[in-house]
Design a protein that fits this description.
By secondary structure, the chain is an alpha/beta fold. 27% of the residues lie in helices and 26% in strands.
């Protein structure tokens, strides 16, 4: 069970007590309020939180083999924007009570869809001053994922990059990070006509392919991209698009043993997990990349306050703009945001106002 607060204080949170595929598995419960237990921790009063596809995987039990739940009652969510209300004794002078911050929570101890969260300072950064808490909450997981994947892929000034799914949560910010932060000269993306294409234009895509009416892989054959960002488990199809010396980076599909080992939060995978990963390894992606003289790699995003601080500068300058699809008005209305995200039809992010 979640440990009781020393003074018996409680809070509202969106929880699940058994795995399920739909929002029927979730409910708003009153649970113990977390407290600062380590000298490098802070307590944050949550003003907004956001949902991501990983939340559906976690809720359905798909992550439990490599990342078991800490308690019998689990709070969903990773992305938070809020206000620091308590600091541990070793928290640097960089943070103090009243600071507005945003964070992608690192642990499984407490989730984001709650009135309060605890985190350590290396995970968090000051919230961009020019946007709302809801907009800030939409950024951490997708922003970190995009920045770290694009850097792993060697994207730099002048790079030509393929980022499919440009209207999605990761895609819409990845295009902006590639163009504005990393100075890529060209980004091609895919989208459906209408709202999806409009978002891709807004975030600065150079070329948008209608995946409903065109065979994307055929259209882009021989384009010689420096990097392809596989956000939808399509890496096996990207060999013909990538140039000799280029890189395909995946965040979707079955992870590699190397990716799990490098994401130290999981520890070393068990023999059973290793056997499953070996059998499920995306050899088609590896082999097709190799044929093109390119490489393929799977990565896990790592929570990083320094990366968030860097992204915040570009948000404050107006170079990066959060894209919101759905905003639920309170924790009690969480299903408005969760149902839209879980439907797979969201354009941009689904967020929840908390306080």
């Amino acid at each position: 069970s979640i440990p009781d607060h020393a003074d018996g204080e409680t809070m509202k949170a969106v929880c699940f007590t058994s795995f399920g595929k739909t929002t029927d598995a979730l409910s708003v419960k009153t649970i113990p309020k977390p407290s600062v237990e380590s000298p490098d921790e802070v307590l944050i009063k949550v003003h907004a939180c956001a949902l991501n596809p990983i939340d559906k995987l976690r809720m359905s039990g798909d992550l439990s083999l490599i990342n078991p739940e800490a308690y019998d009652t689990s709070v969903l969510g990773y992305d938070v924007a809020g206000e620091v209300v308590q600091v541990g004794e070793e928290v640097s002078k960089e943070y103090s009570v009243g600071d507005e911050v945003y964070v992608r929570l690192a642990g499984m101890k407490y989730g984001a869809m709650a009135e309060y969260v605890v985190c350590t300072t290396p995970e968090m950064a000051k919230k961009p001053k020019n946007i709302s808490f809801a907009e800030a909450a939409s950024i951490p997981l997708v922003g970190l994922t995009a920045l770290q994947a694009l850097r792993t892929g060697g994207v730099k000034e002048g790079s030509k990059v393929f980022i499919p799914g440009g209207a999605g949560g990761v895609g819409s910010i990845a295009i902006q990070i590639a163009k504005k932060m990393l100075k890529a000269s060209h980004v091609t993306t895919t989208a459906s006509p209408g709202a999806g294409t409009d978002i891709c234009n807004k975030v600065g895509a150079d070329r948008i392919i209608d995946y409903r009416s065109e065979d994307v892989v055929k259209v882009l054959a021989g384009e010689d991209f420096d990097m392809a960002f596989d956000t939808m488990n399509q890496a096996a199809e990207f060999g013909g698009l990538i140039k000799n010396g280029g890189k395909i980076v995946s965040i979707s599909g079955t992870p590699t043993i190397e990716a799990i080992e490098s994401a130290s939060k999981f520890g070393s995978p068990s023999l059973l997990v290793r056997a499953f990963m070996f059998m499920s390894r995306n050899r088609a992606a590896e082999n097709n990349a190799k044929k093109a003289g390119a490489t393929w790699e799977y990565i896990f995003m790592k929570p990083d306050g320094n990366d968030l601080a860097e992204i915040a500068k570009y948000v404050e300058s107006g170079d990066i703009v959060p894209i919101i699809d759905t905003e639920a008005s309170s924790l009690d209305e969480f299903a408005v945001a969760a149902d839209k995200l879980f439907s797979g039809r969201a354009k941009g992010k689904c967020v929840i106002k908390v306080a």
